Amino acid sequence: MGILDIVPAGVITGDDVRKVFQYAQDNGFAIPAVNCTSTSTINAVLEAARDIQSPIIIQFSQGGSAFFAGKGLPNKKQEASILGAVAAAKYVREVAPAYGIPVIVHSDHCAKKLLPWFDGMLAADEAYFEQHGHPLFSSHMLDLSEDPKEENIATCVSYLKKLAPIGVWLEMEIGITGGEEDGVNNESVDNASLYTQPEDIYDVYKALSEVSPNFSIAAAFGNVHGVYKPGNVKLHPELLGKHQELIAAKIKSESNKPVFFVFHGGSGSESDEIKEAVGYGVIKMNVDTDTQWAYWVGIKDFYESKRGYLQSQVGNPEGEDKPNKKYYDPRVWIREGEKTMLKRTQEACQHLGNVNTL
Ligand SMILES: [Zn+2]
User: Using an 8 Å Cβ cutoff, are 41 and 334 in contact?
Assistant: First the structure.
């Protein structure tokens, strides 16, 4: 039995999202969530997943969403980020069925100061639900890990109460992931807070599971956003196993992995560390930095190999009057970026065991 036996192709929502995560956890794999900022990057990720017959998660950051709508738009009140995220989610909804794979559409890190962005997307979900009986997005992420634990949990509970009835999954973060993302800089936090404590995970689990089972937790186990020199922090995926044990015992769970964990800041991680984390119940891993680099490498290599054809509209090494349109047409060089991003996305799927899982 594969994933397409339990959920349909296209964007999935509600309990279907939990079914896919449960299937992944039971079968020992996780699904990469690739940050996208354009139709080109979305298409590359969908094509990558289709070609290895696997589900995929497409996610939009607050900055990526604004970029999707256009850098020329004002964004003081998050209006471009809301518009861009909504437009991008609608685009994915429209094309995903043609790729024949289940797709989860997710919004990435939302810190307290960005809550108006979250509220705008939630309003779009509610309006979509009114019309179609399911939400626009599959899932949203709230990141209040910088705020006191009680406030973090209370805010997540109040949002889950709005998300659960319309079938939207909630991902939350507790503990500090190092590095920098979307303007939140954690490069100088002390080492101990880079590891979430098990009691904190239990408090989150207890509070959220009273509202809905449709949530996941991004816990810190030494992970860092972005790519940094190795050796600064040490990854401890075994901590996730300890969290699972503690919670299973406290709630007398039949499952030895009651929690759906999310792996943030996995760029540059060793594949055995990734495998270990997946073994402890990680069902989603964020991928951004590495696929950004991959997209650029495709374009860079194309430019370097076709340099002589890309200096003017007419005239290249084959002759002064030879036209260069088939080299500078954006469809040609952007496609090169798509191809390398596609390969890197498939590599992420391989690391996570998400190959031929449909
Ligand atoms: Zn994070």
Answer: no
How does residue 38 score in pLDDT terms, banded at 50, 70 and 90? very high
Nearest to 274 by CA among 221, 215, 198: 221
Q: pLDDT digit string (tens) for 241-277?
A: 999 999 999 999 989 999 999 999 887 788 888 999 9
Q: How far is the CA of 302 from the centre of ligand 1 (A)?
A: 33
Q: Is 198 helix (H, G, I), strand (E, B) or coil?
A: helix
Q: Which one-letter amino acid corresponds to residue 257? A: K
Q: How many angstroms is it from 170 CA to the middle of ligand 1?
A: 13
Quote the ligand 1 centre to 38 CA distance (angstroms): 22
Can you read off the two tokens belonging to residue 317? 């090494």
pLDDT tens readout for residues 137-185 = 999 999 999 999 999 999 999 999 999 999 999 999 998 766 655 555 5
Q: For residues 97-118, b (16+ Cβ closer than 10 Å) or e, as one string?
A: eebebbbbbbbbbbbeebbebb
- Residue 141 in contact with residue 107, Cβ under 8 Å? yes
The crossing angle, in degrees rounded to 10, of helices 198-209 and 238-250 is: 50
Query: Residue 35 phi/psi, 5° resolution?
Result: -70, 130
Catalytic residues: 108
Give residue-wise pLDDT tens across range 219-241: 988 887 665 555 555 788 999 99
CA 322: distance to chain centroid?
Answer: 44
Residue 271 CA to chain centroid, in angstroms?
A: 18
Cα of 12 to ligand 1 centre, how many Å? 23
DSSP-assigned beta bridge partners for residue 284: 31, 262
Burial of 272 (0-12, 13-18, 19+ CB in 10 A): exposed
Q: Are 293 and 41 in contact (CB under 8 A)?
A: no
